[in-house]
Amino acid sequence: MNTPSALSSSFDARTDATLRMLRESGQYKHLQVLDSPMDAVVRMRGADGRHFEALCFCSNNYLGLANHPEVVEAGIEALRAYGAGTASVRFICGTFEPHERLEATIARYMGTESSYTFVSCWTATEALFPTFCEPGDVIISDELNHACIIDAMRLTPVIKKGVLKAVYRHSDLDDLERRLREAQDNEECTGQAWVVTDGVFSMEGDIADLPGIRALCDKYDAKLIVDDSHGHGVMGRTGRGTHEHWGMLPGGDSSVDNAQADDIDPLRAVDYFTGTLGKALGGGAGGFVAGPKRGIELLVQRGRPTLFSNALPVTVACSANAAIEILMREPQRVQRLKDNVAYARARIREAGLEVLESPTAICPIIVHDTARAIAMSKRLLEKGVFVIGFGYPVVPEGHARLRVQISAAHTTEHIDALVSALRSL
Ligand SMILES: *Cc1c(COP(=O)(O)O)cnc(C)c1O
Asked: Rounded to an integer, what distance in angstroms lies between the CA atom of residue 317 and that of residue 315?
């Protein structure tokens, strides 16, 4: 048997080897430190310890709400009124009035019957699948779905033995149908089929064909779950999300000409949503599940993160509530973001760069080589433009990119400065 010291040295040795490998292969992530609120312009700390200003083109602050005075004030007031922590899980004594208020606001914003909040979308997703699924159910997932969906799928059959899983090729409806048919023919698959997709995919910036996926879900009696973390506040005329973009919002109109949406009952166009409060809905942090009351009630009764993990801090709940109220009151922010995105894409293309097309605020500039993406990102920062390069293994080999993210907080001058920095590389 190993002695305790041998065990600890085995962790130490292998961790040192991993970190050395990451450094030597250029994959080691250096955390950039900010010394200002998140905004179009941020104050950063250089390697020499000195501060400098940079244009931020890599945050998820799509609507510029992270530092909105009302959002900040709502948090300060909540801190005074309710103190710092909830000191309890929700079902014991951790549910405060601001939680109820925020959940009603999210449901109104999403056009759903009900919603429930968590400390993050990651946690919301880890609550949803193991709680909703039972043995004999099958979860069918897009291969490019967010890591929290991948991990929640891995976790679910560990908690509930007999839950089945399948993955379909990215946005490939024929492959999705194949998986649904396989599930239908599988004797072990006796329960509910669940199809899960991101609304907006974070690395490609492309969107899910929700009308097409819904039609397949109807054909095979499957439920549809959409994680729209990058879509909320961005997609659709009023920023409700990818479902609004496709005309699948109750009472709403769409950003696209979508005849298919006429055949879809908007109230059940998407069965359940997961989302984050830490991106466009810039209140701070937190996540939610939104959908029919039945499922939300089950999460409250049975979700393990609900039962065993602390509630969203009240300060954050109040800031998030303010952010969503502002978004609903000022849909022109969403239009401003769309205008900025259209302008940025056109200027980036004019500069002769290859930018992936989509209606989202994520503009990946493909530079192919991982080392090149990292070097470009470093040179941009020296020019005062903060953009992150993503390479292998986050994206496939040969598809390395600079991921530019546009915000309603950017001005035309900011975008021009980004493009001239890109041109000068
Ligand atoms: C960012 C993101 C998350 C994680 O959200 P957190 O609230 O930070 O946990 C989950 N899903 C998708 C699709 C995301 O883009």
From this structure: 5
